[in-house]
Every structure is written in C-alpha cells, then in structure tokens.
Task: inverse folding
C-alpha cells in the first residue's frame, strides 16, 4: 500500500515532502510508532531521487517527528500526538438533525457504561463460555470452501438460499411459524429487521405503538424515523390491546417473553391484538428475541402462526442463541411489505456477509444449533431455578419476581421502598453488576425493581453474588 503524498511540480521537493509528512503526523494520519516506507521505495513511488526522500526524513528526525532505528527503518516518534481539530460551531445545515440523534439515550449498549463486574446480571447477553467453538470452526471452514468456489460477486439481497431454507425449517419446527424460503430476509441482527420495517412503513407524523415498559432501541428507532411513538401499557396478560390508539400504523410487541418484565402474552390477548391490527390496517412486529428457551407450561403459538390476514412481521435473531458478535437475524415479512423491505435492504447494505451465512446454514442443517440450544437450556434452567429459590427465600423481604416462562432474564419488583440507585452503586463496589427496570419506562412512572439476566453469570457465582446483594440490603435497612 502506498503512502499518500502528492508532489506538485519540480520545485522545493524536499520542502513539499517535509510539509506533507509533518501534516500527516500532526493530523493523525500517520500514527505514533508507524513505520514509513524505505527511502528507495518512497522515491520510486513519488518519482523523485532517493536523496530527496532521505533529506526529508533527516529534517523530520531533527524536528523529533521521526526516529530512525538501525536495521528496522524509520518510524513516527512514539511521543508524537495529533493536534486536535477546533470544535465545530454547529452552523452547518444539518445541525438540528445531528443534535436530535446525539440527544438519544442508548441504555442497552454493551458493554455497560460502568464496565463489567465479576458477577454480571446484564440482560441480553448469552453465556459466552457455552459458545460451540469447535462446531462453529468446522462450519466456518465449510463457508470458506464455498466462498472459494464462488465468483466473488455480490450476494442475494434476501440472503443465501441455503440459509433461508434452514431458517424456515428451524422457525417452523421451534416456533410453529408458517413460512417458506421466499418469505425470509436475512438481516444483520434483529435491529436491522426492525429498521427495514420502519423504513418502508414509518413516515413523519404517523403513529407507532410500542409496549410500556419496552425495548428502548425499538422506540428510539421509530422515533428517529419521525413517528409519533405511543407507549401502550402492559399487564399480567401482556399488551393492553384496547389502549392502542386509532390511526396506529405499526405495533411493536414481544409476546413470547415481554421485554423487560418477562410475562407471556395470553392467548386471549393475542387474538385481540390480531383483530385490532386488522381493524386498523396496521402491521405488527413480533420480536421473538429469546423464546427458544422455555421452562414452564405448554408452548404458546407465535402471533405469526395465528395470523390469517398477513399482518405480522416475525423477527428472529441468533444473537441470543449463539452470539451477538455474529450480527445475524432474520425477518419473515408479510407479502404486503416483502418487496419493499427487500429494496430497502438493497439500498442500505446490499446483503449480509455471505461467508457467515454459509457457516450458519451449515450449523443449522447439521443439527448443531438445536444441540447447542438444548445445552444452553439446561444451563439456563439451572441458573434460573437458583435465582428463583433465592428470591423466594432470603431476598423475598425486598423483591418479588414476575413470573416468566421463557428467555434468560427475569424482572424483580420491589416489595417495599428500596433505593435502587444506591443498591446498584453499592453492588458495583463489591463486583456485582445489577441493572434497574427504570430505563425501560418512558411514558409512565417507572416501577422500582431489577432486571436480572442470567446468561453472563456462571451458575456457581449466583449464590455468592446474591449473598453480597442480601448483605447490602440488610445494611441499607439498618441505616435507614
């Protein structure tokens, strides 16, 4: 790769080279410690004499911007720091739009702002130690072989046919979803699926209904598209359908495992939601983010499987079953928006990484995904049972768990007044990462409580960490 230097004319060649190299160093384009091309090579690239380059290097070395190392070459000095650009005065045409984006809070960004504690109850993070490295490595090697046989062109917007077929079979088997290969669009995680639906349905001033409390990135995404986002309360049966306002165009729900409270939407409420959506002419986004892990009761139908009018867009993700780092998800789109979503996907990023799609297709077809889910289910069930036992015993004076039958997080509501902010600070001091429910409320007074994810914490760490939480709560009671 050539170093970008532009020499003009034949005058003051050494001075031009010195000024450009110095500017590259001060601007940060040449970082501290970076090696410069040998004098002979750079001279050939610029069409100047080697002596010119050597003299420029010597001057910059004298100015302590470069340093020569015998037998190694010439490097940018280690103690050189780029000069900061002057702050913008904000007088550019899009300043108001940029300011609106900057003002958006992102409470679910990982890692947590406070950093990772030894004992982490962060939600949405699967067990890293359970990732099937050997199986995934084998599938990646298969993907590389497939890629070596390809023509090296752009892939299908909808996704690799082999992966879409594997997803269709998996979703039908695990969630009873009714779909074929042509209904599926592979996305870069569930968040892109939400973004694509919003792009083709949302315009400034239209009404979008979301759960309250709910998933902040979805609410913020719809708001960023200019929608009038309305929070619809949830109760023990899920979304209160009768409170969805007239004129709603899009409804976002998490029926299998309400985020963040955890209860499933009742069958009666699901039927009512489908009927209300049909009455409004609205599309429902069913975010099925972690329903593969179910611990109690009979399986519940997905909304999509109950839909007879083509109003449900089903969103799935492999971030919870495998790893968020893969950025793989999918959208099962109703026919009314399928073509529009494909065009939006084409214009936004063309297609998802093909080698990764090959690897996941192989992983699913070979049965490795179901095997991995079963393995994780056993571990999560044990962790869940341990947390439930503790909150029903020595932690019960302070907290009550909301019944949840799926996923790998639970919510605990305060039975009495607890200073949650102080509890979180004190827990962090003893290396326990706890998280409040408050950030998930936006349209109503927040319930006081905790969101307890049990994907990132080892089973053996649950009791020691909750011992620390109990001791903190006792101290807080005694000091009040």
Result:
């Amino acid at each position: 790769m050539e170093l970008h230097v532009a020499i003009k004319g034949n005058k003051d060649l050494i001075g031009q080279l010195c000024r450009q190299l110095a500017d590259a160093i001060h601007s940060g384009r040449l970082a501290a410690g970076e090696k410069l091309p040998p004098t002979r090579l750079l001279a050939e690239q610029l069409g100047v004499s080697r002596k010119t380059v050597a003299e420029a290097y010597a001057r910059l070395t004298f100015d302590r911007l470069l340093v020569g190392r015998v037998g190694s070459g010439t490097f940018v000095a280690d103690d050189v720091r780029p000069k900061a650009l002057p702050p913008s005065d904000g007088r550019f045409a899009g300043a108001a739009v940029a300011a609106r984006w900057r003002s958006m809070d992102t409470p679910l960004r990982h890692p947590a702002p406070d950093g990772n504690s030894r004992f982490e109850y962060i939600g949405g993070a699967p067990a890293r130690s359970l990732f099937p490295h050997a199986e995934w490595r084998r599938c990646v090697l298969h993907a590389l072989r497939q890629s070596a046989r390809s023509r090296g062109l752009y892939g299908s917007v909808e996704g690799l046919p082999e992966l879409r077929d594997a997803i269709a079979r998996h979703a039908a088997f695990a969630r009873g979803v009714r779909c074929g290969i042509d209904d599926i669009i592979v996305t870069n995680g569930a968040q892109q699926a939400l973004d694509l639906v919003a792009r083709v349905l949302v315009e400034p001033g239209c009404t979008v209904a979301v759960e309250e409390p709910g998933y902040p990135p979805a609410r913020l995404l719809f708001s960023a598209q200019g929608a009038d986002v309305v929070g619809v309360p949830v109760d023990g049966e899920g979304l209160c359908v009768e409170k969805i306002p007239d004129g709603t165009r899009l409804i976002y729900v998490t029926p299998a495992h309400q985020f963040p409270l955890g209860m499933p939407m009742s069958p009666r409420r699901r039927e009512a939601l489908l009927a209300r959506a049909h009455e409004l002419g609205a599309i429902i986004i069913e975010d099925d983010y972690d329903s593969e892990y179910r611990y109690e009761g009979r399986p519940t139908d997905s909304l999509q499987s109950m839909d007879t009018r083509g109003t449900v867009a089903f969103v799935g993700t492999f971030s919870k079953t495998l790893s968020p780092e893969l950025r793989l998800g999918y959208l099962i789109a109703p026919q009314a928006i399928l073509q529009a979503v494909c065009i939006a996907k084409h214009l936004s990023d063309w297609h998802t990484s093909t080698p990764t799609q090959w690897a996941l297709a192989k992983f699913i077809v070979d049965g490795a995904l179901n095997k991995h889910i079963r393995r994780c289910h056993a571990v999560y069930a044990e962790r869940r049972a341990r947390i439930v036992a503790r909150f029903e015993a020595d932690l019960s004076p302070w907290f009550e768990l909301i019944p949840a039958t799926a996923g790998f997080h639970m919510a605990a509501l305060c039975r009495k007044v607890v200073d949650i902010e102080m509890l979180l600070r004190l827990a962090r001091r003893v290396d326990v990462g706890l998280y409040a429910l408050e950030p998930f409320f936006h349209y109503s007074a927040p319930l006081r409580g905790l969101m307890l994810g049990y994907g990132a914490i080892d089973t053996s760490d649950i009791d020691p960490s909750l011992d620390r939480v109990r001791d903190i709560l006792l101290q807080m009671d005694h000091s009040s």
